[in-house]
Amino acid sequence: MNPAEIRNQRILDAVLKKEKTLCPGAVALIGICGSFQTGDVHPLSDLDLLILINNERGRQLGAAFVQEDLGVGHDIYCTDWESLRRDAEYADPNIAKLMDARIVYCADEKYRSELEALRGQVRQTLAEPFCEADYLRAKDVLEEALHCFALAMLGDDLTEVRKQAGGVLYFAENAVALLNKHYFRMGVRRRYEELNAMTKRPERLCERIEDIVSAGTVSALKERLTRLVKELTACFERERQAVRPEPESADGESLRGTYEEMFSNWHGKMRIAAETGDRHLAFMSLVSLDEMLSDIRSGAAIGPLDALSVFDPEDLENTSRGFDGVLRDYLREYSRAGVQAAVYPDIDAFLAAYLKQPGFETEQLLLRYVTENDLPEVARTWPSDHRPVSEAKARDAIAYMCGNYKRNTKGCIHHLCLAVCGKERPGTIMGWCGLDGTKNHAEPEIFILLDEAYRNRGYGTQCVIELLRIAVEDYALSSVHGGCAKENIASARAMEKGGMVKYATEENGDPLFRFTAKEKAEQ
Fold first, then answer.
1. What pLDDT sits at residue 382?
2. DSSP of 269-307, one letter per residue?
3. Which of 127, 128, 125, 143 is nearest to 236 (CA)?
4. How many CA atoms lie within 13 A of 468 on its CB side?
5. Secondary structure in 3-state letters for 80-95
6. Residue 480's beta-bridge partner residues?
7. Which residues contact 426 (CB under 8 A, 6 or more apart)?
8. What is the mean pLDDT of residues 401-413?
9. Bond prior to 383 in cis (omega within 30° of 0)
């Protein structure tokens, strides 16, 4: 052994000797980390230890001292299992002590196994493909860097600005490491080497860092910090775009109600601001609108609506008109998504619509959507043979129907299943009807399944007429198909009376019907 290794061994022996006399069983294992583990040893290198303790009594083993003859300081620091488990969550890239410590003492092999399990957890995290969760983990640390940057930009004293600049660099380096799913294996002396080996980083990252630590004035520090932060945020934005797919085209369900909410929240405030000259009210209302639009845009592809561009502090009347223009533009997004804004001429019109049963009406029937409130009835009547099913199966059926309600859009029916109820007893399900687009979303098949007690009353024909209207007017479909067993004369008659035309017969004699919106319009 060389003198440094002999010294290190003496420190290790002293720790174990003190543990035996002062807190037996407190130490689980000890590992060597830092420069004596990596081999990057300097005459002034101190001994870095992972002293993993089982209980708080082990804290008594900690000590810090200066070895004056060599001018070396040592910090004997104890780590508990909880700290190591937090490290294994990989929220911070400074985990070499967990991952790389060379174990030189282990009180029991179970402790080594537990340590290896934590290391395996990190290795699995690092081995998985980079995803949005990884990006967000790194972004959280970048936010800490941006916080320090803001404080630095507010400072006037060189010492204070340097302090915040140090925070920027510390969190920026950690954020870049996390962005690359890397942990720092070497000491700070080798930081540039490790950073330069990473691919997801500003091209001149280390040069920017060196510029900052070399700055001698407040103005130079701020200028160089700004340059680094701009390049970092651009780097992170590139990675965000790579892992976060572009928002899908806006659909009705994602936008429904948002226009009405915008109008309710801010239209009145903008008019009041214009009438009273309240710049603050106008500005903050537009800020809130812009934030809502950004939130919607993160999940749905809508046009570039810029609420803040209409703000004119010298002309709030014009600002209010600009706000109205933004809402008109947003209504076009509603139209593209097939959503009709809930706008009523007066309160009476609203109340009439509000109190109307959800669904569609015929002369005697209500064809309505099902909800969780229908669980007992669905269990009683599902499926078509009306034999009771379990509550679990009924709940699955409701989830299936409700899921398709959301998926169905203009020109595209996945499956529309409506409960058939009498107007006088809307809570009692008499059967089911709808449009099945499983085979062809644009040309669905009509189906009607009535309980035996409700057949031969003309209800089937009413269902056909209303379903065809729904297909054309609500979903912009051009045709609907249907069929039935040749023995089912009542169903065939209902389709014909409802407006469908028999156009073919299957090999077994079953009739096939269709309805075409174009032919209907020409009649």
1. 84
2. HHHHHHHHT-HHHHHHHHHHHHHHHHHHHTTSB-----S
3. 143
4. 27
5. EHHHHHHHHCCCCCCC
6. 515
7. 357, 366, 368
8. 90
9. yes
* Burial (CB count <10 Å: 0-12, 13-18, 19+), residue 413: buried
**Please, which pLDDT band fits residue 253 given cuts at 50, 70 and 90?**
confident
Residue 126, Cβ neighbours under 10 Å: how many? Answer: 14
* Residue-wise DSSP of 452-465: GGG-SSSHHHHHHH
Q: What is the pairing mode between strands 27-33 and 511-516? A: unpaired
Q: Exposed, middle or buried by CB within 10 Å (0-12, 13-18, 19+), for 402?
A: middle
Position of tokens 């007429």? 465
CATH number of 3-127: 3.30.460.10
* b/e map 23-41, b = 16+ CB within 10 Å: beebbbbbbbbbbbbbeee
**Of 32-41, 142-151, 247-256, 392-401, highest mean pLDDT:** 142-151
Give the amino acid at 177. A
Sole residue written with tokens 């009145």: 268
- State whether residue 336 is helix, strand or coil: helix
User: Which residues neighbour 160 within 8 Å (Cβ) at sequence distance 6 or greater?
Assistant: none
Question: Which residues are bridge partners to 64 per DSSP?
Answer: 75
Q: Which helix (H) or strand (E) holds 103?
A: strand 102-106
Pair 173, 148: CB distance under 8 Å:
no
Q: Measuring CA to CA, how many Å separate 380 from each of 28, 104, 430, 516?
A: 62, 69, 10, 35
How far is residue 89's CA from residue 125's CA, in Å, rounded to a whole number? 9
- pLDDT > 90: what percent of the chain? 68
Q: Nearest 5 degrees, angle CA 451-CA 456-CA 458?
A: 105
The confidence score (pLDDT) of residue 386 equals: 57
Give the Cα separation of 333 and 316 in Å (integer). 26
Statement: 359-522 belongs to CATH 3.40.50.300: no
Query: How far is residue 442's CA from residue 410's CA, in Å, rounded to a whole number?
Result: 9
User: In the 8-state DSSP scheme, what is residue 373?
Assistant: G
